[in-house]
Design brief:
By secondary structure, the protein is mainly beta. It has a single domain, classed as Beta Barrel (Cyclophilin). Helices cover about 5% and strands about 20% of the residues. A five-stranded antiparallel β-sheet has the order 1-2-4-3-5, covered by helices on one side. A hairpin with a 3-residue loop joins strand 1 and strand 2. The longest helix is centred in the last third of the chain and has 8 residues. It is globular. It starts with a strand and ends in a 24-residue tail after the last helix. The model has no long low-confidence stretch (mean pLDDT about 95).
Length: about 110
């Protein structure tokens, strides 16, 4: 469930409750190696501060000038048109999509 959508910034999901407050019931440490380049298509962990990673993640809709505080674990290499469509979803005043946006499938490749 994508519970937070900010066009020209990012889309956020991974909360099984869809409220933005849920998670897996545990947290894990940051892994901040690398450059911290939050460019378009970057997939990174959302958090509430240092070492508070859970299940929530975000995908950068555009190049985002974020501080190097979010563990990067992937990159959208195909399907950015889907990210663009989600980012264009109408939202309420709290950046929540008016209609539910769900992930139906994901393909992970190593390379």
């Amino acid at each position: 469930i994508f519970h937070r959508v900010i066009q020209n910034f990012m889309i956020q999901g991974g909360d099984p409750t869809g409220t933005g407050r849920g998670g897996p019931g545990y947290r894990f440490r940051d892994e901040l190696e690398g450059s911290g380049d939050y460019s378009r298509g970057t997939v990174a962990m959302a958090n509430a501060g240092p070492n508070t990673n859970g299940s929530q993640f975000f995908i950068c809709h555009v190049d985002a000038g974020l501080p190097h505080n979010y563990t990067i674990f992937g990159k959208v290499t195909s399907g950015m048109d889907t990210v663009d469509s989600i980012a264009a979803t109408p939202t309420d005043g709290s950046d929540r999509p008016r209609d539910q946006v769900l992930i139906r499938s994901v393909t992970i490749t190593e390379g």
